[in-house]
Amino acid sequence: MPVLRQAHVADHGTIVSCVQRWWGDSRTPQQARELSLLVPKLFLQFFSTTSLVLEDDTTLSGFLIGFDAADNDREAYIHFVGVDPRLRGQGWARSLYTAFCRRAAEAGRTEVRAITSPANAGSIAFHRAMGFTLEPGDREVDGLPVHSDYDGLGQDRVCFHKTLTSRDR
What we know:
This protein is an alpha+beta fold.
C-alpha cells in the first residue's frame, strides 16, 4: 500500500525516469523524454514542501508537483501529476489531489488551478470529478473552452479552477 510523503530533491531522477516509463506506452521515447522536461529539478529544489510522492516501500508509485503562488496569497497550482499505470483507477491520483488541496487550504490558500491539453479527455474528466471548473477560453473545441497558444504557438490548453472549501481542510 503506497504511503504519501513530501517530495525531496533526491526524488527528481526517479520522477523523471517514471515520467519516461509511465508515458512510454502512449508516446515515442523522444516524446516521453520531452514530457519529462516539464519536471526540472528546480521544482523540487524550490517547491518540495508543496509537492508530494506516493511510495510503496522504496518504489515510487505516484507524485504531484505543485506550489503556492508567489504573486498572491490566494492561489496554489498543480503543475504535473503521475501515477504508475499499474495503480491507476485505484484512487491514488485523487489521494494526491486531496492532500495537495488540504495542505493548500491549511496554508490559507483559497483557490487551486491546473491545466491540461484539450485532447486529454481523461484528465479533463478527472479534474471535473475532483470539483474543478473549466475556465472560459478564447474559443471552443468539441464543447470545451480552450485557451489558444497558452503554452506557445499551437500549444492550446484547458484551464481549471477550484475554490477550496472547508471540506478541503
